[in-house]
Amino acid sequence: MDTWGLGGFGSLGDGTTTDRSTPAPVPGLTGIKQMAAGEYMGYALRSDGTLFAWGSGYLGTGTTSSATPVAVPLAGVTQVAEGLFSSEAVRSDGSLFGWGPNGLLELGIGGNPGNHLVPVQNIYLSNVSEIALSYESGLAFGQYDAATVPSAIGYSQSEAATALQAAGFALGRVSQVVDITCDYIGEVKTQTPAAGTLARLGTAVSIGIGKPGGKCL
């Protein structure tokens, strides 16, 4: 495998910061089947599923700078894509992982923007076959495995279990919570995740059944 261009950030992977106007081999990288490159980083995917990264930025290796290739801690990789700062990879089982600053939510992993130095699984997609990543967004061919958690508030335990299962979720931990209003005695008063939350199908939803707490208000 050969690289060329500006090497000031270790972006050529040859262990130097030397600019090169002609191709030069990257030491130790053989059997490469796919490559991806960004402004300051480079990736090489070996035929055995090992992914290597180098340069300056969110490499997915737990570090942000290396002038030589370092293995990303993700086995069985079949595809890699890079945006300006963030990157994604698909494993042989169809699972999707991403890493980087996620400043524009481009990784699609949910939650708020945050720096991810190592790969984080996207729990909303499975059987991913193709990916693409830009500065602001990502694309993937795969199966969407998420849905909105329904409300179980006011249901009996058995009714809650039925409603959750019908929506693709499972009944998790059942506890009792004091109901000082006596409006939900024997019924679901609390649930986690909350109704309306986007969650992976099959997620267990914990519920709290109301119990009297002395004199009701």
Explain how this protein is built.
5% of the residues lie in helices and 47% in strands. It has one helix and 17 strands. It has one helix at residues 157-166, and strands at 2-5, 20-25, 32-37, 41-46, 51-56, 65-71, 77-82, 87-91, 96-100, 116-121, 125-133, 138-144, 146-148, 170-179, 188-192, 198-200, 204-212. The strands form six sheets. Strands 3-4-5-6 form a four-stranded antiparallel sheet, with no helix packed on it. A hairpin with a 3-residue loop joins strand 3 and strand 4 (41-46). The radius of gyration is 24 Å and the shape is elongated. The relative contact order is 0.11.
Short description:
This protein is mostly beta strands. It has one helix at 157-166; strands at residues 2-5, 20-25, 32-37, 41-46, 51-56, 65-71, 77-82, 87-91, 96-100, 116-121, 125-133, 138-144, 146-148, 170-179, 188-192, 198-200, 204-212. It is 5% helix and 47% strand.
Keywords:
1 helix; four-stranded antiparallel sheet; 217 residues; elongated; mainly beta; 17 strands
Reconstruct the topology from this structure:
Blueprint: E1 2-5, E2 20-25, E3 32-37, E4 41-46, E5 51-56, E6 65-71, E7 77-82, E8 87-91, E9 96-100, E10 116-121, E11 125-133, E12 138-144, E13 146-148, H1 157-166, E14 170-179, E15 188-192, E16 198-200, E17 204-212
Parallel strand pairs: 14-17
Antiparallel strand pairs: 1-2, 3-4, 4-5, 5-6, 7-8, 8-9, 9-10, 11-12, 13-16, 15-17
Q: Catalogue the unreliable spans.
A: none
Number-wise, the strands total 17
Rg, alpha carbons: 24 Å
Number of H/I helices: 1
- Spatial strand arrangement across the major sheet: 3-4-5-6
Q: Distance N terminus to C terminus?
A: 74 Å
Name the beta content range: over 45%
Mean pLDDT: 91
Please identify the structural class as seen in this structure.
Answer: mainly beta
